[in-house]
Every structure is written in structure tokens, then in C-alpha cells.
């Protein structure tokens, strides 16, 4: 069981849905730094402005955590379906033959999770996992309010293991592929997440459901 202290990152982080163009540029700049420069998943030449963005950003909600100096500590986006246009993972990830998918209007794809390793963490304030949980919490509450009942995600195994350790169990729905690194497609039903956390990690469930 995870100590409840681990779920009080609001002492040094604030979170919000990012909609202002200037703030979004800060997110895209961080994504460029991580995906193009640090990890070389994407070619820098494709982004001459130093901003990593794509067509999916126009129909995504961006969630970000900021430290006490208002530096972006991390962000994630939730891509929503637009008139049956589909999700990013569907262009890159094959599925198992028996995979059962929910209606697209009730789902969103979690993608472009990015962390600012230069962000100063105060003593005892948190770590990488804290930042991830904080932006996921903002996205979770938005999803419940907007009727998004399922999350897709193309994830690497370390992130899957980290989430699993605290009771967040995604269902794998396809084989591994090379898609900005070795990933596999996963699906999470939020009502199933709530039921599981009520059994194995009620502290986390309470924190996820509490007022931001």
C-alpha cells in the first residue's frame, strides 16, 4: 500500500488544462527537447521552430503540472475522437485478433507524456512518479466529467510496470512495435480502475477523486 503522503504533490505542483497558445508553445517546446533532442525519437529537422506538435493536437486536451516557479514539470495529452477520425495508436499498432474495443466517442488516447528532468523538486516534494500521477489525476477528473470512459495508450514496459505497482492496470490489446520506442497498445476502463483501486489502493482512489 502506498503511503498517503505520496499523493499530496499539490504542495509543490499545480495542475491545469492548458489551452492558452503561449502555454501550449511551452509544452511543445518541452516535447521537442525530450522527443527530438534527448531521446531522438523524432528528427529535429522536421521541427525547425523547436516545437514538437502534430495534427492530433487540434483535437486533444493537454494537461500539465507546473512547479512553484511556474516551470512545466510535465504534461500529457488526451486525444479525442473527431467524427470517427480515429486515434494515433491505430496508425502504428496492430491489435490482437480477439481485442474488443469500446465506442470511439467514449474513449481517448493518452499520449505525449513528457517530463522535465530539469525541473527542481523540493526536498521530500516528489519525484518522476509524482509528476506523472499529478497530470494523470487532472486527466482522470476531466474524463469523468466529459464522459470519456476508456483510455488507450501505447506504452513502454517501464511505465506499465510503474502504474501496475500502484494498482493502475491497463489491459494489453496488441503486440509490441517500434513506435517512438518499443511500445504496445493498452486499454483501460475507468470504472474498472475505480473498482480495482477500491480493493488494492483506496488511498490513491481517494486522492484521484478529491478536489483539485
Indicate the topology.
Layout: E1 14-18, H1 21-38, E2 60-66, E3 72-80, E4 107-115, H2 128-146, E5 150-155, H3 157-165, E6 171-172, E7 177-178, E8 182-189, H4 190-200, H5 202-209
Parallel strand pairs: 4-5
Antiparallel strand pairs: 1-2, 2-3, 3-4, 5-8, 6-8, 7-8
Helix pairs in contact: 4-5
Mean pLDDT, to the nearest integer, reads 90
| Number of distinct helices | 5
CATH domain fold name: Aminopeptidase
Please name the CATH architecture.
Answer: 3-Layer(aba) Sandwich
Largest sheet: 8 strands, mixed
CATH class: Alpha Beta
What keywords describe this structure?
212 residues; alpha+beta; Aminopeptidase; 8-stranded mixed β-sheet; 5 helices; globular
Task: Report what the structure shows.
The chain is α+β, with helices and mostly antiparallel strands and 212 residues long. It has a single domain (4-209), classed as Gcn5-related N-acetyltransferase (GNAT) (Aminopeptidase). 31% of the residues lie in helices and 23% in strands. It has 5 helices and 8 strands; from the N terminus they run βαβββαβαβββαα. A hairpin with a 3-residue loop joins strand 7 and strand 8.
Brief summary:
The protein is an alpha+beta fold and about 210 residues long. Helices cover about 30% and strands about 25% of the residues.
Amino acid at each position: 500500500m502506498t503511503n498517503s503522503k505520496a499523493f499530496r504533490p499539490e504542495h509543490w505542483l499545480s495542475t491545469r488544462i492548458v489551452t492558452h497558445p503561449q502555454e501550449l508553445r511551452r509544452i511543445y517546446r518541452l516535447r521537442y527537447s525530450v522527443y527530438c533532442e534527448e531521446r531522438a525519437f523524432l528528427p529535429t529537422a522536421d521541427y525547425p521552430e523547436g516545437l514538437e506538435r502534430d495534427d492530433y493536437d487540434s483535437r486533444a486536451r493537454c494537461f500539465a503540472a507546473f512547479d512553484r516557479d511556474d516551470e512545466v514539470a510535465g504534461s500529457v495529452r488526451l486525444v479525442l475522437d473527431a467524427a470517427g477520425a480515429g486515434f494515433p495508436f491505430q496508425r502504428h499498432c496492430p491489435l490482437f485478433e480477439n481485442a474488443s474495443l469500446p465506442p470511439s466517442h467514449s474513449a481517448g488516447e493518452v499520449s505525449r507524456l513528457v517530463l522535465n528532468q530539469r525541473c527542481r523538486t523540493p526536498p521530500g516534494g516528489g519525484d518522476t512518479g509524482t509528476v506523472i500521477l499529478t497530470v494523470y489525476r487532472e486527466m482522470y477528473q476531466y474524463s469523468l466529467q466529459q464522459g470519456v470512459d476508456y483510455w488507450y495508450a501505447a506504452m513502454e514496459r517501464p511505465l506499465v510496470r510503474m502504474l501496475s505497482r500502484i494498482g493502475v492496470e491497463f489491459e494489453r490489446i496488441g503486440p509490441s512495435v517500434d513506435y517512438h520506442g518499443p511500445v504496445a497498445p493498452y486499454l483501460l476502463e475507468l470504472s474498472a480502475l475505480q473498482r480495482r483501486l477500491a480493493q488494492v489502493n483506496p488511498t490513491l482512489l481517494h486522492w484521484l477523486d478529491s478536489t483539485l
